[in-house]
C-alpha cells in the first residue's frame, strides 16, 4: 500500500464534473492499493489538460503513451466496479 499525498489528491480535482466523478473516487478508494510505479504513471497522467483527459476517458482519442492508456483503463475498470454502489 502506498501513501497518496495531498498534492496528488488536489491535482486530481479537475473542475470538470466528468473527470471529477472518475478521478476523485479513484484517488480516495483505489490508488493507495497500487504500487509506486503506477502512482508515478498516474501523476504523469495528471500533466495532461482537462480536454485531453476527457477525450481519452470517453474514447474519442487515445492517450499519447502506453502508460497513460494503462492508467486510464485501470481507472475506468475501478469506476465500473463502483457503478450503482454510490450509496453503499
Automatic annotation (TrEMBL):
GO terms for cellular component: cytoplasm. InterPro entries: SDH (IPR005631), SDH_sf (IPR036714), SdhE_FAD_assembly_factor (IPR050531). The keyword Flavoprotein does not apply. The keyword Oxidoreductase does not apply. Keywords: Chaperone, Cytoplasm. Belongs to the SdhE FAD assembly factor family. PANTHER family: FAD ASSEMBLY FACTOR SDHE. This is FAD assembly factor SdhE. It comes from Succinivibrio dextrinosolvens DSM 3072.
Amino acid at each position: 500500500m502506498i501513501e497518496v499525498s495531498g498534492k496528488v489528491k488536489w491535482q486530481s480535482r479537475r473542475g470538470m464534473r466528468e473527470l471529477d466523478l472518475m478521478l476523485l473516487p479513484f484517488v480516495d478508494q483505489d490508488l493507495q492499493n497500487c504500487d509506486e510505479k503506477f502512482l508515478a504513471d498516474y501523476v504523469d497522467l495528471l500533466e495532461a489538460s482537462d480536454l485531453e483527459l476527457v477525450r481519452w476517458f470517453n474514447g474519442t482519442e487515445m492517450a499519447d503513451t502506453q502508460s497513460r492508456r494503462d492508467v486510464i483503463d485501470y481507472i475506468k475498470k475501478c469506476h465500473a466496479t463502483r457503478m450503482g454502489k454510490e450509496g453503499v
